[in-house]
Each structure stands twice: as C-alpha cells, then as structure tokens.
Specification:
Chains A, B: This is TetR family transcriptional regulator. Two copies of one chain form a homodimer. The first copy, chain A, is mostly helical. In chain A, 68% of the residues lie in helices and 0% in strands. In chain A, α1 packs across α2 and α7 crosses α8 (147-164). Chain A starts with 10 loop residues before the first helix and ends in a 12-residue tail after the last helix.
Amino acid sequence: MAKDGLRPGGRSARVQASVHQAVRRLTARLGRPGVTIPMVAAEAGVTPSTIYRRWGDLAGLLADVAVERMQPDTMPVDTGGLVTDLDLWFEQYAEEMSSGPGRDMLKDILAAGPEPDRMARCCGYTTTQLDHILDRAAARGEAVPAAAALIDDVVAPILYRILFGGGPVDAAFCSARIRLALARDGQPQRQHRTP
Amino acid sequence: MAKDGLRPGGRSARVQASVHQAVRRLTARLGRPGVTIPMVAAEAGVTPSTIYRRWGDLAGLLADVAVERMQPDTMPVDTGGLVTDLDLWFEQYAEEMSSGPGRDMLKDILAAGPEPDRMARCCGYTTTQLDHILDRAAARGEAVPAAAALIDDVVAPILYRILFGGGPVDAAFCSARIRLALARDGQPQRQHRTP
C-alpha cells in the first residue's frame, strides 16, 4: 500500500486488502490452479479490469499475495548472543521456506519474474530482521558483518537447496553457514550506525 | 535419455528428441504462453497422451527442455590457474543465467517444482564443470575446495541475485565470492581422488 504513496486505509488500500483476501480464500478453497482473475474479482467485489490495471496478470497478483505472507509477524528472539540469535532465526527461516506453504510462496514470487519493487519488499523483510539481530549484537559490542554478507552466505545457499535440491536445510547446515559467514575476512563491512 | 535406462537412439529417445525440438520451435515461433501440449504433440507427430504419460504436464515438459539447454557445450577454459579459471567460468555463467534466455530457463525449471531427477541433472552439469576445473588445479598441486563449497558460496548467491534481485552479478561480485570461497577455513574438505 505504502508503495502507492496513498494514505493507509484509503480506497486503494481497501481494494488491495479485499483482493488479497479473495485470493487467499479462493486458493484455500480451490487450490491455486483453479483460480482465475474473474473469480477473484467476483469474490472481492471489484471489476476484473481493476485487477488487470493494478496487478497486470494473475501471476503478478499471486506474487504480491505471497510477498505479503512473507512479512514476519514477530521480531527475532533475543537469546543474548549473535550466534545463538542467528542459529535460532535461520533454523526457523529454513523450516518455513522449505515447508509446503513456503515453497508455494517462493514459486508464486518467482513465477511473476523479478519485478523490482516486489523483490525489494520481499528481500526487505529478511534484511530488516537480520539488521535487528545485528543492531542488538553491535549494541552489546559484538563484531557484526553486514546483513548483505548473511544474505549471500546463508540465505542464498538455503534458498538454493530448497529451489534446486542438492541437500538438506537442517539446523546443522544453517549453523555451518552462519559460522562461515561470521568467521570470514573480506566480508562487506557494516555501515556504522549512530544510535 | 540415459535416465530412462534406454539405448540411446531407441524409440523413447527419438520421441524425446522430437518433442523437445517441437517445444523449441513452437516457443520460438509463438512465445511460451502460446504453447499447449496438443500443439506440441501435433508438431512432434506424437499423441498428446504420449506427452502427458511421459512429462505429466506442460510445466514438466518445459522444465525438461530447459534443463537440456543448461547442458554446457564446452568444457571450462584452462587458463593455467584455479582462480583465473574460476573467474572466467563464473563470469560467463553469471552472464548466461542473467540473460533473457537464462532467466526463462530458470523460470521454466522452477515452475515445475523440485523434481529430484531433473534437479540432479540440472545441478550435475554445474558440478561437473566445477569438478573439471578443480581436478585440473589439484593435478597442478593447488589446494582446492569441494565443488559443493563453490555451489554454496558462489553459485547460490549469483542465482539469488538473479532470481530475487538485490544486486548485480558482474565480474566484481563473482570474483569477490570466489575469493571468499577459496579462503578455506571451515570449508567442506574435498575428497581425495586417486587418478
């Protein structure tokens, strides 16, 4: 909604909310292959042209709904240390992404192609969560890499294994990748932030 | 073809070749959204049920054709050193995968879901090429990581950026990832091979 520069709760926001809800209801009821834009429009009480104008096609709409679902509903648990915070967060992340619903989310997002604004929101959720963990660690005086280093070193291999196979994404794999990321010289340095 | 355990050039192999060729012709002529299984069957001179029986659905067929296209037609260039071999190979890999046809291949492969045999062939092509570079380096007496380490450290972040955005996959990015991967603390050790 914010991306439209519109006031939250405005007409555009209400349209998006009801269309997203219609997609979730219909896919739950009929499964994704059974859903069409005219069905979504009827369920949401808008015209099909409203949906085509705003989302382009069904793939774009499904991808937006999937990105919404990727938005975490809690901030990362504070275990008191960087490594244990990352172990816990990534174990849950890998579990969610490799689950049936997680794979469907990834499939919907990728099927629509890399639309920059959507991908920025999608990756933004992960970066925000990691920065939260890294800020806490930095405040405790721990040395921390840039979130970008954790994306390349941990997030990317986890998603590669989920999308292309080639190995489990269990706690052992995640913690090995986390320790590699934290041990490495030559990582992108984190911007210093004034609190 | 080999995966079917059939003699190359056998009936099954000929069916696969003509169906794949029909897909390539039709997608080139009409674009992927325009192609249907009955059209492919007509173009290939087989019955639609032959295609449904063997590939399940259009997504599975398009994914198989895409995996075929990922098969490299040359072995990696020998520049005389591990780092320069990897720099050259990954620069070409990133260029190909981020091109329009490369993105279409990835999209087709991912749309069909992680069918283990298909994914094994797909990732196998990359592993074979990397092992070829690593074997040459080991034969020169250079220290080499496991191909799996290069998949996690270099291939995965390249594909993450291509699929989810979040940065260029230029030569600078590839060579930075390669150098991180070769600084080997905590990397999986490569199995020693008797020549």
